TrEMBL record, chains A, B:
Residues 27-321 form the Tryptophan synthase beta chain-like PALP domain. The gene is thrC. This is Threonine synthase. Catalyzes the gamma-elimination of phosphate from L-phosphohomoserine and the beta-addition of water to produce L-threonine. Pathway: Amino-acid biosynthesis; L-threonine biosynthesis; L-threonine from L-aspartate: step 5/5. It comes from Defluviitoga tunisiensis. Belongs to the threonine synthase family.
């Protein structure tokens, strides 16, 4: 009889790929090891083999924790006392959690009224200084960069290279979960474009280390209303229901294009309507993701229809955040039922028994 | 170079302790393997060694997934076509997710207006038939039992014995995460009293299998306004901010008392004020749990003060659900900041730079 070795967070688990020293104090909430769920209904419908990488099952409910554990670990190693980020919500929630865990002063700059309810709540609860500004994400990032460049406070946006280094662990996990095999296609939402960059780096490193059999094709999907990369122009007033990717001037623009090009993939966009359809279909697989997450699945559906994804392909869709992050969008898409008296016949009738 | 073996859900990982056959089709969202986080600030403050079992990091954001994977797996094995539960919210979210994954018709009966926003959203998104009734949880459970007893629909409340069998896996994980060692004390919120029953069963089985060195003392904490077990009477109109444990007539009442007695522990209550204080302190450890979860930590603080927990004790607090389940309670305890113009001096001033 042997005791199970449980997960110790992505830095400890993939240490040989992480830029830490043997004695580095690791700031972790034991992020990672998220589910890779076979989507039975969608696979049958689309005639592919579709898996969902459910990143909502991280401590703060999004993939951002993978990068934040490393960014905050390195900040502490460096003796920093404060961190700052601009955010559409998930980054701030993660920075707030890891910042509080490490005892750092944490500042988050967010666009007023444009972040999902759950995410705002997280940043506030974890004791960050939360500053909503009148402007969009890109404005928030501009001012954040200025402050970090000129004052003793460390930037933990994805301009911080450790964020990408941590996030690449998700690609390792996908290959490990598939038994040392890469998917044919990795589909992923694109907002600030850090995550597609990180996955591609991860797949390449794992291939080089002979832990996976090949490289996947990377398909990135922006929301139509903030599709700067696809439209090849900065979008000054991005608009989409997928608030987590509502970014008009992605920081990792060129790297994302490189990932798509090198992998013989592409970056495209999906409409809000396509996103909402995919969002609802995902929930019927037992997986509740935030709207932006559904851009990956919406993109897969679009590409299957266009015959750009072949029958039987092994496809992984990255679902970046948990549906609980954004209850308002969920409730706006469904009808809430009215309360009834606890009368047996009445209830049997509603159930259809 | 070896690929990591990632987590496959609690039934696969602890199969020798689970009532399934070799060829049972397992319905899983890869629940379990949740973080056990050392609470540095609270440990220092209370002069104990405190760990947080963060059950919010399950697919639907609560510990209920551990029991639901087994209850739904067994329902499918049995050829059942429909499941039903009454719920204060977490059970319904979990039943809805696993029910949709398995393709079962899923019915959830909830007390009107008394379940947290996120949980209602989950049940609806996953396509359940959601029936809010005019009454409290105990009324909802009464009618649910009647329906399950007389119609072809399987009850997945914790009266279903497989729920407890699945939930006991959390005790296994705690021992594994501590390196084959049991904590001195396991502190846990008590609502319907199924979880304390499940942990105690798990600790006993693991001890018998020689995977842990001893048995812990079990400390269960009800909320004062629904403290039926402590007050030794059914409470007809339970009231507490901790909606997940707002239950006036716990189903597993006797088994919970047995767990406390056998382990030389106890069941006590904490006030809503103590719960909210602990809730806020937890967030400063980087861990955002729902209010009911904080009952465990509130109880630990109370018992340290009363010298009922000795200095240096190894204590595990079970945090049953994620804070994102209940954004409204969070926002009611904190002040939301006002938006400012993106003016550098103004923002530097707010940051204190």
């Amino acid at each position: 009889m042997v005791n199970r070795k449980l997960w110790e967070g992505i830095i400890n688990e993939y240490k040989e790929f992480m830029p830490v020293r043997e004695n580095t104090k690791i700031i972790t909430l034991q992020e990672g090891n998220t589910p890779l769920i076979f989507a039975e209904k969608l696979s049958n419908k689309l005639d592919i083999e579709l898996y969902l990488k459910y990143e909502g099952v991280n401590p703060t409910g999004s993939f951002k924790d993978r990068g934040m554990t490393l960014a905050v670990t390195k900040a502490v190693e460096n003796g920093d006392k404060a961190i700052i980020c601009a955010s559409t919500g998930n980054t701030s929630a993660s920075a707030a959690a890891y910042g509080s865990k490490a005892g750092l002063k944490t500042v988050v700059i967010i666009p007023e009224g444009k972040i999902a309810l759950g995410k705002l709540t997280q940043a506030l609860m974890h004791g960050s200084i939360v500053i909503p500004i009148k402007g969009n994400f890109d404005n928030a990032l501009d001012i954040t960069r200025k402050i970090a460049a000129n004052y003793p406070i460390t930037l933990v946006n994805s301009l911080n290279p450790y964020r990408i280094e941590g996030q690449k662990s998700a690609a390792f996990e996908v290959c490990d979960q598939l038994g040392g095999v890469s998917p044919d296609i990795l589909a992923i939402p694109v907002g600030n474009a850090g995550n597609i960059t990180a996955y591609w780096k991860g797949f390449k490193e794992y291939y080089q280390a002979q832990r996976t059999n090949k490289l996947p094709k990377m398909l990135g999907f922006e929301a139509e209303g903030s599709a700067a990369i696809v439209k090849k122009q900065v979008i000054n007033s991005p608009e989409t229901i997928a608030t987590a990717i509502r970014i008009g001037n992605p920081v990792n623009w060129e790297k994302a294009v490189d990932a798509a090009t090198e992998s013989k993939g592409s970056i495209d966009f999906v409409t809000d309507e396509e996103i909402l359809d995919a969002y609802k279909e995902l929930a019927l697989e037992g997986v509740f993701a935030e709207p932006a997450s559904a851009a990956s699945v919406a993109g897969i559906k679009k590409y299957v229809k266009l015959n750009k994804i072949g029958k039987g392909s092994k496809v992984v869709a990255v679902l970046t955040g948990h549906g609980l992050k954004d209850p308002d969008t969920a409730l706006s898409t469904i009808q809430t039922p009215e309360a009834v008296e606890p009368n047996l016949d009445k209830i049997l009738n509603l159930i259809g028994l």
